[in-house]
Amino acid sequence: MKPVEIKPNIYWVGGIDWDLRYFHGYLTPRGTTYNAYLIVDEKIALVDTVKHYLFDEMLSRIREIVDTTRIDYLVVNHVEMDHSGSIPKVMEVAPQARIVTSNKGKKGLERHYKKDWDYLIVNSGDEVNLGSRTLKFVHTPMVHWPDSMVTYIPEDKLLLPNDAFGQHIASAVRFDDELGWDIIHEEAAKYYANIVLPYGDQVNKALDVVSQLPVEMIAPSHGLIWRSYLPEILRVYRRWANHETEKKALIVYDTMWGSTKKIALVLQDGLEQAGIPVTTRFLQTSHISEIMLDVLISKAILIGTPTLNNGMLPSVSAFLTYLKGLRPKKRVGFAFGSYGWGGQGAKEVAAVIKEMGWEMPENIVNFQYIPDDQELQLAREAGKKLGEAI
């Protein structure tokens, strides 16, 4: 299990999780990596660790380079257990190491592990000298936990931002240009949409800090290391942080007897007549985390449900719960559905859309039983008007 030198005397020593398929509520068909970085200087620092069951893999890579008893600092940028899970074992093999983290990081580690470790608390702007290198720290709270911070090495123009700029990809290669922009961009977008999306304001602040630093390489704690596509990933991160979208529409629906599906299809037709590209997702075949990738770029989001037991279908309710938590902004919303007698399902969808603060230029479409041709034409016209609005 060989380490990979990413800069002179700076090594990737993380773990590759080929089998992971579910993380934080979303699907990870490409697996993931938990990246850790070893910096060898007059003092030796390990930045972040790996999920507990990959400790031996990380340890094997570290021991290819140094004796673990020589590690002076363990930098904890973020206490979530996919990155901190191996800390107890690291401290057993590197008992003299000081844990470098934020004050909130210290509190989080104490709550997680109940250990009396030696801490060095750092604030934004603080530095730790390793000899020929300096570790500089910048707090980035809520990107995506309160304790989050990034580590910057000015001598190497290297940023170690933990979860920011990450992607869930298990790969035998370590760098972005070894895999290609299309795949890594898709996974970075999916990662942002499912984890970082609620924190656009905080991401913008972090990007403002990064823009003031000379950065040649960004080495996140998941996925590939950015060295060739830095301008591209920084540009799309700024777009995502500002909730900028494209002139596209997304239709998300579930159906019981096919009526809501009929409405979804004529809404699609109306949008396309207005010149708007449409993605249509059926909740029985599309996972909500995959749909979030469409949410990230779509200006209009149309959500449909039949009425069941005086409310929306549970699948639609689950999607909306997930969507509310991720808080996309600057969207145009639309609710539609079908019902047997009460008709509350589509109305509940509309209420959630209003709660999220989206524009709703068109009234809901909600038809009883099986919509006839005249009703379907009304829905088609509603789709066309939405398309014209965006």
What would your notes on this structure say?
Helix 9 links the parallel strand 17 and strand 18 (278-282). The model has no long low-confidence stretch (mean pLDDT 96). The protein folds into 2 domains: 4-241, Ribonuclease Z/Hydroxyacylglutathione hydrolase-like (Metallo-beta-lactamase, Chain A), CATH 3.60.15; 249-389, 3-Layer(aba) Sandwich (Rossmann fold), CATH 3.40.50. It is elongated, with a radius of gyration of 24 Å. By secondary structure, it is an alpha/beta fold. The strands form 5 sheets. It has a 7-stranded mixed beta sheet with strand order 1-2-7-8-9-10-11. Strands 17, 18, 19, 20, 21 and 22 form a 6-stranded mixed beta sheet that branches. The protein is 36% helix and 24% strand. The chain starts with a strand and ends with a helix.
Give me the CATH superfamily of the largest domain: Ribonuclease Z/Hydroxyacylglutathione hydrolase-like
CATH C-level class of the largest domain is: Alpha Beta
**Secondary-structure arrangement, i.e. CATH architecture of the largest domain:** 4-Layer Sandwich
Q: Please give the share of residues in helix.
A: 25-40%
Strand content: 15-25%
Radius of gyration over all CA atoms, rounded: 24 Å
Q: Residue ranges: pLDDT <50 for 5 or more in a row?
A: none
* 3D shape: elongated
Widest beta sheet: strand line-up: 1-2-7-8-9-10-11
Distance between the termini: 52 Å
The total count of strands amounts to 22
Number of helices: 13
Mean pLDDT: 96
Count of individual domains:
2
Helix/strand/pairing class, anyone? Answer: alpha/beta
Largest sheet: 7 strands, mixed
Reported by name, the CATH topology of the largest domain is: Metallo-beta-lactamase, Chain A
